[in-house]
Write a structure and sequence with these properties.
2 copies of one chain form a homodimer. Chain A has 24 helices and 18 strands. Chain A is an alpha/beta fold. The interface between A and B is large, with 116 and 117 residues.
Chain lengths: 586, 586
């Protein structure tokens, strides 16, 4: 295999066009092979094979610096920059991450996992180069739905002011994760139809020079275009028309499904492991669809990620105008929800914990200062749902729980979750965020209320003494386990389901002081600024001691949840031991 | 005065063109009168007088809904919607806020103070209207520098998909707060020069219909344009060319200075109160200018607000390429800083605490995961610096202190601040944020170190017993006062300057356990998720009690700092009393 002999981009430069085409085939073969066994981003990488080869053929990485947006289109780049071993044999698949990673290679400049950042980050490299009086090309690769994100548009707008070398490659594969949304994608389509010659041109209107490459999977067209812009003395956009999923028929045909895939059979495209029953995501979409039928003002909103909360194409079609995909644009999504709620609609914005980070100010300003009764569903908020450093879902509790007016709920089972969701649709006094549980849905073992308007009211599940356990949301189950283990040690603990993240049930907590010496908090997220610290502050002036369990402050990457739990003292035996020690050898 | 007889927009509709011109004069007279005594946003409002009259003449507010971006261009709107009394006599000036405010009038739909939100918020009103099967026009007014913000661009992109009535009025006054930056403003200039007919058109490229009004301060042109788009069945942009500061010569001449003004003499434009000596902002710019001369890689970055940290036009000119104004685009600014630091530059991004909220994800992902050594200066972070609800600077400690890798510093005086700033420029291991002190600069009374690379090392200012006071940043001075008041009561307290917000000096804290019963934290910000809670969690498992002082969780608006401090138990007598009570009647 030719690819095995590529140690670095220097080896690419020695190849003939025919050899590069062979190389492209090799890359696709290894990509499909690895993805079929390991899973990962499929369509975006398949579409970028030729462009990546051409970039390395024309430019001189790492002196010339290529920054891949989201970096889920960076696997071919990894193969050409000394990391092909991680695609050759299964035992080395995890030697590289799924995103660009400077610790792996001098050809990667940033750890990137959120979308829409490459123009700004690469713009910084270009400005830094200029400040230092250095030379070299800086290339930002963006596309695959990322252009609609505010940060990318801010970056494009700014780029026009950089009076020096800067090349922005727009990988236009005609898709976001799902279909593209927003006016700018219509403009891209118009540009494709006119071979870059139509009157309306977003990039020129932003003050940038522009080059169009119609055959974005054709090596000679790409090489010609990149040569043309190499060493440019001003910012220029190279718009390349690529085919998402190129070279693997199932991925070309169903681009949304094949954006990211679990392991599959190469011959048929069938997933190796079938979907295992109901999950909270599918449950959510099915439930909301039902509500939409009864109430035409209920409207689900996604920012380019419908699939992560059960909105399959058929469900979206069924919802019709009651489903809005704003494209990758979380800031807009939150403000839109606020406006809809103000106008009497019932918007439900579902967003992954990690991506909600992009809209903190909109949650605070547009939504919560205005106190409009929209519903936010915080998806995947947990220490276990995502383990890539750029996609950690650890931080939503600290992020949201300090925002005044927001009611932030932590359901502990399926029935409680759906009751909270229904209640939030009817509630008209404040915005409500719900931390959607993760994992296999648990059934309620106790009656669940339908009304949560007595804010901050916790559920006292069982009353013991000496030690009380507050098991928040996903970690209520852990609280049950700890409680049971303590019982084996002769301790009858009090067990509480806090239900509300955004405020404490002060009267319940104060009632503990008389016969409890220790209050324990368990939260499925970061400790710093989180729920436990509020409880610790509450009991600070009292004689009751507190122990907070959650994740310590660190960026972790690709961790095994079991190891991570052990390192953070989150296993049942560790928690029990800490409790016993605090109680003084009880 | 004709304006005094305008009770509601219905009265505007009865006027002739000549009367409306008189009305415009009346509005300007009252605006200038009020601003000269009270201060406030000047230029943006003066430019929008005719457009506001025309909007109310053509549309039927509140059935037709007008949403003013930032709303510092909404004073004329307030005068025409039943609130003229707040502009007529000084005793009523504070009856209205400086921003749009639904609690004041049914003609205001949102509390808006941050920029770039109106398109998304109004878009939500339009979508909500459609879901409910209602009719009526929805109008977003945007401009004055706001267009470059990511949220606005996301909103424009999305708007093209709304297949119903939506009108976006772009108030193009050729300025941001300072001069405009970014490629899109070049496009606006081109559109002005060509009377809306040039080939490049950002709005058309975003898929929107477009109308240009060259005479944006001419009532009949405006009325004609608004009539044309009224009841449109699709989204349309009305681009109006206005004059910022129109009708007041000093404001027309120096648009940047007159964006917002302190009270002034109308005849001369001279400020009534002269600038009173040195402040931390001016200090910062002067200091950085000096560093820039020694090191050509030092680069200051602002997101459209150079003035708030001392970057006057002359200083900007002196800094040349070492000063970058990205326009209102905080997300881009943070990513740009990360990229520059990666390339070996020394970027310093200065941003108001309240506006930093717009870039949480960029601080976390683009900057801190990548651990690039950029410097963030968090300006105005304090309970006292801004008292409008949309501009509260209470939340930066909770926001930043949970982000791994970030070193977040809280200097307590001038010398310590500048030492930290210099150190951050030289430090190459982590990004550094500095919470720039507020108020009149204090001089150091103790020696200040030049090296802060022993992370989380606090300064033990005096060692007492029983009670320890951690006075963070601005509130170190409060700690000194409390300490002194306790001495009068016979208590020799330990006083600590934490220096680091982002981590605790655990060995120092642990050394207190033996002879301290109470640890008190004082922070000039929100309590929830803040510094005190980290200290409370640290001491949770011990017998040491904790008391945290800061602001409780609430959105407050236009408060008197003294009242606010009293309500939050932040006065010296209150703090002393709470301490004595906790110590048990010591």
């Amino acid at each position: 295999m030719l690819l095995e002999h590529i140690q670095s981009p220097a080896d690419v430069k020695k190849l003939s066009l025919a050899e590069m085409n062979t190389l492209a085939e090799d890359i696709r073969t290894l990509l499909i092979e690895k993805l079929s066994r390991h899973g990962g981003h499929c369509g975006p990488n398949l579409g970028m094979v030729e462009a990546t080869i051409a970039l390395h053929y024309v430019f001189d990485s790492p002196r010339d610096k290529i920054v891949f947006d989201v970096s889920h289109q960076s696997y071919p780049h990894k193969m050409l920059t000394g990391r092909v071993a991680a695609f050759l044999s299964e035992s080395h698949y995890d030697d590289v991450s799924g995103y660009s990673e400077p610790s792996e290679s001098e050809h990667d400049f940033f750890v990137i996992g959120h979308t829409s950042t490459s123009v700004s980050l690469a713009g910084g490299l270009a400005k830094g180069r200029d400040l230092r009086g250095e030379t070299g090309n800086v290339i930002a690769v963006i596309g695959d739905g990322s252009l609609s994100g505010g940060e990318a548009l801010e970056g494009l707008d700014w780029a026009a002011e950089l009076n020096s070398n800067f090349i922005i490659v727009v990988n236009d594969n005609q898709m976001s994760i799902a279909e593209n949304h927003g006016g700018l994608y219509e403009n891209l389509a118009e540009l494709r139809r006119s071979h870059g010659c139509c009157e309306n041109n977003l990039f020129r209107a932003m003050g940038l020079d522009y080059v169009y490459v119609d055959k974005g999977n054709d090596l000679s067209s790409l090489i010609e275009a990149f040569r043309k812009v190499k060493d440019t003395n001003h910012p220029v956009v190279v718009h390349i028309n690529t085919l998402k999923g190129k070279g693997y028929a199932p991925a070309e045909e169903d681009k949304e499904t094949w954006h990211w895939t679990m392991p599959f059979e190469i011959s048929t495209g069938a997933l190796k492991q079938k979907n295992i029953g109901e999950d909270y995501n599918s449950l959510t979409a099915a439930h909301l669809l039902q509500r939409m039928k009864d109430d035409k003002t209920v409207c689900a909103i996604t920012a380019g990620t419908p699939g992560i909360w059960g909105w399959t194409p058929s469900r979206r079609q069924e919802a019709g105008k009651q489903f809005v995909d704003v494209g990758i644009a979380e800031e807009h999504a939150v403000a839109l929800a606020s406006g809809m709620a103000k106008a009497g609609g019932k918007p439900v914005f579902g967003v992954c914990s990690s991506f909600l980070q992009r809209a903190y100010d909109q949650v605070s300003q547009d939504l919560c200062i205005n106190d409009n009764p929209a519903t936010l569903l915080v998806l995947w908020g947990s220490l276990t749902s995502m383990t890539d450093v750029t996609h950690l879902c650890h931080f939503d509790i600290p992020l949201l729980s300090g925002i005044p007016n927001l009611v932030f709920l932590a359901p502990t089972n399926r029935e409680e979750y759906l009751a909270m969701l229904d209640w939030s649709l009817a509630y008209d006094r404040h915005p409500v965020a719900i931390r959607v549980p993760v994992g296999e849905p648990r059934s309620a073992t106790r009656p669940v209320p339908t009304d949560f308007s007595e804010l901050n009211k916790s559920e006292l599940v069982s009353r013991g003494k000496d030690v009380a356990i507050l098991g928040l949301g996903n970690f209520f189950a852990l609280g049950e386990q700890v409680s049971s283990a303590l019982k084996d040690r002769g301790i009858e603990a009090t067990l509480i389901n806090p239900r509300f993240i955004s405020g404490l049930d002060e009267s319940l907590l104060d009632s503990l002081v008389s016969d409890h010496r220790l209050v324990v908090t368990l939260e499925d997220g970061a400790l710093e600024g989180g729920y436990g610290e509020k409880v610790a502050r509450h009991f600070g002036p009292t004689s009751v001691k507190t122990l907070c369990f959650g994740a310590r402050k660190e960026f972790v990457d690709r961790y095994a949840p079991a190891d991570f739990f052990a390192a953070n003292h989150l296993t049942v035996p560790q928690i029990v031991e800490d409790i016993l020690q605090s109680l003084g050898g009880f």
